[in-house]
Request: fold
Amino acid sequence: MPRKIIHDCDPGHDDAIAMMLALASPELEVLGITTVYGNVGLEHTAHNALVVLEILGCKVPVYAGADRPLVRERISAELVHGNSGLEGPDLPTPTAKLQKQHAVHFIIEQVLSHPGQVTLVPTGTLTNIALAMRLEPKIIPAIQQIVLMGGSIDIGNWSPSAEFNILCDPHAAKIVFDSGVPLMMCGLNLTHQTLALPERVARFRGLGTPVGEFTAQLLEFFRQHHKQRFGWEGPPIHDACAIAFLVRPELFKTRLYNVEIEANEGLAYGRTVCDYWRVTGKAPNTEVGLEVDLEGFYDLLVERIGQYR
Ligand code: RIB
Ligand code: CA
Reply:
């Protein structure tokens, strides 16, 4: 039976590639795409999800969720993803419309309808997930697993301490990481291994399909910021790691750790504090991604994205 997932995202170049992988993987049943502010404002991330589905030719319901964090001021990443959030490729006008139901209500409805069978896959800030937990605490024991892109066991990318998705809403992340729901975390320590170097981008373009070309153009735009800030020849495909873990977990080396969120302002605001040497004696709450088989990761992406016509 395919694994039921809800992909909660802020497309976003790498979110778009995560969507492509999820929707081309028979191992997964995407119940819906929920969107959240993050890389850019909600009006753009929700629209971008519809645009990506239009390009893929997929009919999946899209729900708009939170447009701001629980407490802190909203931050965003136009410098990375452009003002639209999907700068680079020419984009179609989507024919599909957003669902009227709020993303948080959709998440609650689906988790309670399929207790123990729905995996939430947030690849943006955790505001929608936290709101769902607060609005309906009954979903907490009913969520099968949360497989997220966010955090890091070492350095940050938006502050010296914190990764962008977690820093966007540290209070939401604290609710999620303290919830007791089984978590798998694809942090920067893992995702930074997946740089889409030119020879890897060429594999997508070499598919000779519109979606292959779309993927290559997304990555070529996404490279600009990463070259300028990090000096890298290609961007990490952060969000696709979360989906790839669900499809091919054997590609990943993981270990269980206690991970807690610093939700107090200061130098470590938004940090995922990983008890790597188990010095606290606290029980592990998170399966942390440590390594990925890069050849297998890119073979999977090229093979699945190659299925779109
Ligand atoms: O820090 C990387 C994360 O922030 C990715 O999910 C990217 O899409 C942005 O949301
Ligand atoms: Ca994202």
